[in-house]
Amino acid sequence: MIAGKSNVSVCLSPMLSENYSLTDSKAVIIDILRATSCWVTALANGAVSVHPVSTLDECQNFMDSGYIGAAERQGKQVEGFDAGNSPFDFPAKKVIGKKIAATTTNGSRAIRGLMPAKEVIVGSFLNFSAVARYLENIENKLVLTCSGWEGGISLEDMIFAGAMLERLERYYMPSGDAAVICLELWKSAQPDIRTWLRRSSHVQRLLKLGLEKDVDYCFTMDLFNIVPVLAGDEIVIPNK
Amino acid sequence: MIAGKSNVSVCLSPMLSENYSLTDSKAVIIDILRATSCWVTALANGAVSVHPVSTLDECQNFMDSGYIGAAERQGKQVEGFDAGNSPFDFPAKKVIGKKIAATTTNGSRAIRGLMPAKEVIVGSFLNFSAVARYLENIENKLVLTCSGWEGGISLEDMIFAGAMLERLERYYMPSGDAAVICLELWKSAQPDIRTWLRRSSHVQRLLKLGLEKDVDYCFTMDLFNIVPVLAGDEIVIPNK
What we know:
Two copies of one chain form a homodimer.
Chain A: E1 6-11, E2 25-30, H1 35-44, E3 49-52, H2 56-64, E4 68-73, E5 76-77, H3 92-95, E6 99-103, H4 107-112, E7 119-123, H5 128-136, E8 141-146, H6 155-167, E9 172-174, H7 177-188, H8 193-196, H9 201-208, H10 212-218, E10 229-231, E11 234-236
Parallel strand pairs in A: 1-8, 1-9, 2-7, 2-8, 3-6, 4-6
Antiparallel strand pairs in A: 4-5, 10-11
Helix pairs in contact in A: 6-7
């Protein structure tokens, strides 16, 4: 039995986050292509933590002190770093027991804007059901936060948000027009989500870079049963 | 015959406008509920011009110099002004031959961010086909700019954008995920757009204020055959 529902809203871009009262909310950070998919993969593969940083210099400094340095700009790995922003850059043999510093075009910056939230949870299709189950027990308001692309919006982040709103409908009440839209898009995208998402400009951009394998991987449901959260400056799997 | 298509993109909120290169584009300002619907109505009813201003003080100053002062905050007319933000506040007998200064929660502020554009055109359902025909002759890129609600997004502005994208598909190529979404929403909303739009939080807000008549009016297609544009600081019907 559910005594009462909490509100869930969707923030479509980090540039809109000031419209949301994060201090009394938990937030899910979403950057399906590809930051949150990478972080979830790296942690599932045995990395100790992921530290999102904004600049290449910061990333280099962490790398100099023993972190794996992951740096991406415009969809490509930046020269001189250990990894880019492909989930295939973080296999177990490379990341097990290691800390990672990561800077990407969108997701790494977006998560910093969420720091005022009560808790920040990392969401991707790869750990979709684990996140959904975790959220069932939360009594706070919830903001699903899409990282988008360079300040704009991203179809694939919104589809994730729509799927999560539907999954959580027994527990949370969707609030605001962005939530209505994400639910509607999620319905429109059935039954063939992968084909539907080909219309995303970010998907098109990655396909042009020859990254179809990454796109397919990032749209895979429930590969991992983990719920990474932000603890201080780093993303970790709690109690692990 | 159409030689080549220009790009059309959709900006979902004034807070996202810095992502768009306005200087080489024409822009349509959209605030269906209710600023652009009011401006179109006032000009169609014989007003000489509408001057959007940001603050109540500015509006008062214009009123002191003979303008009709229209001021709205949180959906309601501000005390002491001649009009609020209802299209029924601008009948011919009141506005004919007059200049209007208008400040509203969203639209009046949004239009100021569009000033760098080559031309700013005022769009509403009330003058939908007139605007569409006007845009057929434009060779510039086009940005359909939704005013939204307090920095967030608005379903009804996006439905207008989707309708316009569809109407202009022979002339313009939709660009970016926001355009994909608006087209998808416009399709979802068929055939009963008025019922579908009841999900908009802004519609709900106005209905709670007893403004059903305003909502119905603002969703009416093609009442007027005018294309208001921004000329300097004021919105006018050109060559009139």
